[in-house]
TrEMBL record:
A single MF term (Gene Ontology): alpha-L-arabinofuranosidase activity
Gene3D superfamilies linked to this entry: Glycosidases (3.20.20.80), Golgi alpha-mannosidase II (2.60.40.1180)
Class of enzymatic activity (EC top level): hydrolase
Organism lineage string: Eukaryota, Fungi, Dikarya, Ascomycota, Pezizomycotina
Biological process according to GO: L-arabinose metabolic process; polysaccharide catabolic process
InterPro entries according to UniProt: Alpha-L-AF_C, ASD1_cat, GH, Glyco_hydro_b
Name this protein carries in UniProt: non-reducing end alpha-L-arabinofuranosidase
Length: 509
């Protein structure tokens, strides 16, 4: 959480941070990824058997290394829109027997060369947890139950034995399962009304939990500000006692998924757009509470959280999905991603998981080429946050002037503030180190700022910036990266124009 006092442009800004004011745990899963059968994400991304850069299973070694460097804790799969016509059985067993199928989400052909076991094996190599989305378009409940059995069962039953036959004795233990993806969308095969969706989701959830009570189910929401969200939460967040041993703490649904992509051609609307996600999180958290109150869910049932399982900067006109959505990210986009990450830290109380869409090649900070990997501008804030913004959110107050121009969407103005300095702060798990993240979105002005609560005289400084907001990274040139320095903690700290800065110091030193 951050609070804000607006001052005039000519006053000196102040940021006040206190490492004792611990607010909420930052779930590591906010640094989640997403790999969809779309464009070059799977084929040519994580799986590239023809490449000299791949291992003997066809996995790109440089991608594995990058995912490890980013410490990605969880990865969503296999879609996205792709999942609405995906039949998991097509993608297991001997490769030569797997059917090639028309693919309707991105209008292509799916070879099924890469499927459940290949993905789960990749997750084990990377050291990340899988998160599966179920086919609510052309799929059936039987199929979904079969997939869960295949992945998680240690019993002597048909699909568990099929997994063994395919070479995997031990269950894979997939904990997270999404009840469909964007089923409200007119582009979705099998688009549903909220009424039909809620009824189906609830019944599928019940059956899935009966088969494996240890799983965590994620409800398909919209963007957190819609009547779809309101309705499906009300229908599905209940006190679920039936069939679950009569437990008074049972709930079928653990998280509610929402998706938002932000983008604008203009720098300031672009960089401030993730503030809409912040307001959406606040609204969704209210809707979750409303459902719990109206349905009389006792407080022994843990409060459901938000699974922001698609977020990023994406303009689908600029980078169409059918063409692989290979966005070329600028410094402006890196600042937008920094604001996105500040939002997740500030709102950590409500966020159970967040997944950048996507992890490789498709609207991604990481691009594979024949020769290696390109780290786009957006990679650097993601890396800094994943490395340093873990543990707990701590309270921070910012006094500064505000950007007052147009926003995208327009409704940001009047519902949430857009200070020039966008801030969040964290205290690491051990309680020893405080990190302050500050995005200065101003294109032309640095801000010399008083920082109250900073300790010590050798503060680590990490800066992400570039020559201008249109700077990009390509295979030949890296215009945006991380510059490391130190600060003596005295006087004012200057946040450069169009930059992200992380300040790190030992708490209480
Ligand atoms: O991430 C790209 C696409 O965006 C996903 O497939 C879909 O869920 C969303 O509309």
């Amino acid at each position: 959480m951050a609070t804000f006092t607006k001052i005039s442009e000519d006053e000196t800004p102040t940021i006040t941070v206190n490492s004792k004011h611990v607010l909420s745990k930052i779930n590591d899963n906010i640094y989640g990824g997403f790999t969809e059968h779309m464009g070059r994400c799977i084929y040519g991304g994580i799986y590239d058997p023809g490449s000299p850069l791949s291992d003997s299973d066809g996995y790109r070694k440089d991608v594995i290394e990058a995912m490890r460097e980013l410490r990605v804790p969880v990865v969503r799969y296999p879609g996205g829109n792709f999942v609405a016509t995906y039949h998991w059985l097509d993608g297991v067993g001997p490769r030569e027997k797997r059917p090639r199928r028309p693919e309707l989400a991105w209008i292509g052909v799916e070879s099924n060369e890469f499927g459940t076991d290949e993905f789960l094996n990749w997750c084990e190599i990377v050291g990340t947890e899988p998160y599966f989305a179920l086919n609510f378009g052309t799929g059936t409940l039987d199929e979904a139950l079969g997939w869960l059995e295949y992945c998680n069962s240690d019993k002597d039953t048909y699909y568990a034995n099929l997994r063994r036959k395919n070479g995997r004795e031990k269950p894979w233990g997939v904990r997270y399962w999404a009840l469909g993806n964007e089923m409200w969308g007119p582009w979705q095969v099998g688009q549903m009304t909220k009424e039909v969706y809620a009824a189906q989701a609830y019944q599928w959830a019940k059956a899935m939990k009966l088969l494996d009570p240890s799983i965590e189910l994620i409800l398909c929401g919209q963007d957190g500000t819609s009547s779809w969200d309101t309705y499906v939460l009300k229908e599905c967040i209940k006190w679920d006692v039936h069939g679950l041993g009569g437990s008074t703490t049972a709930s079928l649904i653990r998280m509610h998924s929402i998706h938002i992509y932000t983008a604008s051609k203009e720098h300031l609307p672009n960089a401030t757009a993730p503030k809409s996600a912040e307001r959406a999180i606040e609204i969704t958290a209210g809707l979750i509470d409303l459902a719990r109150i109206e349905n009389k869910v006792p407080n022994t049932v843990p409060r459901q959280t938000i699974c922001f399982d698609e977020w990023n900067v994406w303009d689908p006109v600029r980078a169409p999905g059918e063409e692989g959505a290979e966005e070329k990210y600028t410094l402006s986009d890196a600042l937008a991603v920094s604001v996105w990450l500040n939002v997740f830290i500030r709102q950590s109380k409500h966020i159970g998981m967040a997944n950048i869409a996507q992890s490789i090649n498709v609207i991604s900070p990481l691009m594979t080429t024949k020769n290696g990997i390109v780290k786009q501008t957006t990679w650097w804030p993601l890396l800094l946050f994943s490395k340093y913004m873990r543990g707990h959110t701590i309270a921070v107050h910012v006094r500064c002037s505000e950007y007052e121009g147009p926003t995208a969407p327009a409704w940001i103005r009047g519902t949430i503030e857009t200070p020039w300095l966008d801030v969040s702060a964290s205290l690491n798990e051990a309680g020893t180190t405080t990190t302050l993240a500050v995005v200065n979105n101003h294109e032309h002005r640095s801000f010399s700022t008083q920082i109250e609560g900073v300790d010590g005289n050798s503060i680590e400084v990490y800066t992400v910036t570039g020559k201008g907001v249109n700077a990009v990274n390509t295979e030949d040139k890296e215009e945006v990266g991380i510059v490391e320095s130190t600060w003596d903690g005295k006087d004012l700290f200057e946040f450069p124009k169009h930059s992200l800065t992380l300040l790190r110091w030992k708490s209480g030193s």
